[in-house]
Write a structure and sequence with these properties.
Blueprint lengths: L18 H40 L4 H6 L5 H11 L5 H13 L13 H36 L4 H15 L2 H15 L11 H9 L6 H8 L2 H37 L3 H8 L4 H39 L4 H10 L3 H29 L6
Helix pairs in contact: 1-14, 5-6, 5-10, 5-12, 5-14, 6-10, 7-10, 7-12, 9-10, 10-12, 12-13, 12-14, 13-14
Length: about 375
């Protein structure tokens, strides 16, 4: 008895139930499914972060007593606690707070009695501007120096850059900020000591009612002096915060460029006489950028945490500066709202970065 085993030709389509056919059918929907899954995962992430912040703050007691205890008579303090609803069960307060967040109502601050939403709107632009500056610095330092470290692997240049990357990441932000102020502002007098702009520039930009992002508002004003003033004030805070992430980018680029050197197409280019410098610039650096994109979301969280210290060090009046002030006055309603918003920003940023990475590298979707 003979068994007829037919071998499909190279151009024949795969069988309907074959793994290749299933992969091809699902390929068109893989991106949409990936986006949906990442979006659904974002919801519990935000919920967990908000829940942790709520209950950790409640460990200190009710916010009214924390902020005003000892400064009001006992009967007035009790009235304020009852009026705010902090004498109810914690779980009731928690679910009510979740309902308020869904309508973007984060309550009112205790110390200055303004809506937390107004604080987020008025000072969020300053923090966003600082983080964007810092990301630019991180890219300008981390990517090119990471490529140099890979091209000079195991030489003194590589060792120097790797040590520098560790120092960038390990040095506390407030310490590097104070050293930078001492050198470039106090001793040399090259750059402003603190603030986002001179008083005259701030008054002019705020009077025009712009976006709250001073560089955009200065450009819109058409006054070169305002633009120069804003950029000069941004240099030291941006470098201080940017170096924190630059070290991570440098090591990531170096590691991935070295890994790319072992790929077959790099060996083929090298056999054709392509120099090592050109290999790095033209062939190896693009694949090395994909890990950078995937970790940007995590670095946003790191930068927002570092922004609290950076803004406090340079008196950069953003959310971090306000958060430090509210922590000092024990205004935990404001602290809770700001931290909750930061959690939402981090989750949304990670979601967007994941989508961008999925577009650039389809392997991320599986």
């Amino acid at each position: 008895m003979t068994t007829d085993i037919s071998v499909p030709s190279a151009g024949a389509p795969d069988a309907p139930g074959s793994p290749a056919a299933r992969r091809r059918r699902s390929g068109g929907n893989s991106l949409g499914r990936y986006i949906l899954v990442r979006f659904l995962l974002m919801i519990p992430t935000v919920l967990i972060l908000v829940t942790l912040v709520f209950f950790l703050i409640r460990l200190t007691g009710d916010p009214i007593t924390a902020a005003l205890g000892g400064r009001l008579p006992a009967d007035q303090l009790a009235d304020r606690i009852h009026e705010a609803g902090y004498d109810r069960p914690v779980l009731v307060q928690y679910f009510e707070y979740l309902g308020q967040i869904l309508t973007f109502n984060f309550g009112n601050t205790i110390t200055d009695n303004q809506p937390v939403t107004d604080v987020l709107i008025n000072y969020g632009g300053a923090t966003l501007e600082l983080v964007c500056y810092a990301l630019v610095i991180a890219f300008l330092i981390g990517i090119p120096f990471g490529m140099i470290a890979a091209a000079k692997r195991d030489r003194w240049q590589d060792a120097t850059l790797r040590v520098s990357a560790i120092l960038f990441y390990a040095t506390p932000v407030f310490f590097s900020g104070l050293v930078a102020k001492l050198i470039f502002s106090v001793w040399l007098g090259w750059l402003p000591v603190s603030g986002r702009a001179d008083v005259r520039t701030e008054v002019a930009l705020n009077r025009s009612g712009g976006t709250g992002i001073y560089l955009i508002d200065a450009i819109a004003s058409g006054n070169p002096a305002y633009i120069q003033d804003v950029l000069l004030h941004a240099i030291l805070p941006a470098i201080t915060l940017g170096l924190l992430t630059a070290g991570i980018f440098l090591r990531l680029v170096r590691t991935n460029v070295i890994g790319t050197f072992n790929m077959p197409y790099i060996d083929a280019a090298r056999s054709r006489g392509v120099g090592e410098g050109r290999l790095v610039r033209k062939h190896a650096y693009r694949p090395a950028l994909i890990p950078i994109i995937t970790v940007i979301g995590l670095q946003i969280a790191l930068m927002l945490g570092g922004a609290v210290l950076t803004e406090t060090t340079f008196e950069w009046n953003g959310l971090g500066f306000q958060l430090a002030g509210y922590l000092g006055s024990r205004d935990f309603v404001a602290v809770q709202g700001i931290v909750a918003m930061i959690a939402v920003i981090v989750a949304v940023t990670n979601f967007l970065v994941d989508i961008i990475a999925a577009f650039i590298d389809p392997r991320v979707r599986y």
